[in-house]
Amino acid sequence: MSYGALDLQRDLGVPRETCERLETHRRLLELWSRRINLIGPNELADYWRRHALDCGQLVALASEARFWVDMGSGAGFPGLVVACLLPADAQVTLVESSPKKTAFLREAIRETGAPAQVQEGDIDAIAPTLEPQHVVTARAFAPLPRIAASAKPILDRGAIGLFPKGADFRAEIAAAEDQGWAFRLKTLPSRSDPGGTILKIEGAWRAGTSDGQKRPDG
């Protein structure tokens, strides 16, 4: 049985207006994907479960957060979907290096009215310049060692990290640890993927460095 907007409305407890925003995003993805590489047709057909639910579930894990930054936003996952679920006083910063994808994101923000903005460029250059954030996210951006390196300036200023991962998440954690990373980390079940998880990171540091002396408690 296919998963649709009404299923999402039930599962996440979101109003009809939120699903209308997301339907606008889905429609724009279909239109723009004919011209640039945003999303494949099979993924688009499963938009409501594979993308809207997968990304939207993050909001409940940080329900009081208002300032979010999304690394490597691409087609808007998870950052634009998160923005569609947030109130008007929130702000999601979508960081994307591709000019074509940033053009898409700007159009999607305009059409959906989501509380978001786009910063075009490399996250490693942009992250240290951002104001303190409540949450940093990324999905299909990079393996965990790269995520940790890029997100660290944001985590160091008090943000939590929420990173959806597939069934190989344990291998990614092990790879990061092999490269000297240590985390204050929880693995949370995914509502969209029984084999996946959401990594909740509240601190990241490099073992054996001066930074390691500043690791979070707990």
What would you say this structure looks like, in words?
The C terminus is likely disordered. Helix 1 packs parallel to helix 4. The protein is built from 9 helices and 7 strands. It has one domain: 3-Layer(aba) Sandwich (Rossmann fold). The chain is globular and about 50 Å long. Helix 8 links the parallel strand 4 and strand 5. It has a 7-stranded mixed β-sheet. It is α/β, with parallel strands linked by helices and 218 residues long.
Termini Cα gap: 43 Å
**The CATH homologous superfamily:** Vaccinia Virus protein VP39
SS strand fraction: 15-25%
CATH arch. level architecture = 3-Layer(aba) Sandwich
Average pLDDT number? 94
Largest sheet: 7 strands, mixed
DSSP, total strands: 7
Task: Looking at this protein, list some descriptive labels.
single chain; 218 residues; alpha/beta; Rossmann fold; seven-stranded mixed β-sheet; 40% helix; globular
Quick overview of this protein structure:
With 218 residues, the protein is of the alpha/beta class.
Give a topology summary.
Layout: H1 5-12, H2 16-32, H3 41-45, H4 47-56, E1 67-71, H5 79-85, E2 91-96, H6 99-112, E3 116-120, H7 123-126, E4 135-137, H8 144-155, E5 160-165, H9 169-178, E6 181-189, E7 197-206
Parallel strand pairs: 1-2, 1-4, 2-3, 4-5
Antiparallel strand pairs: 5-7, 6-7
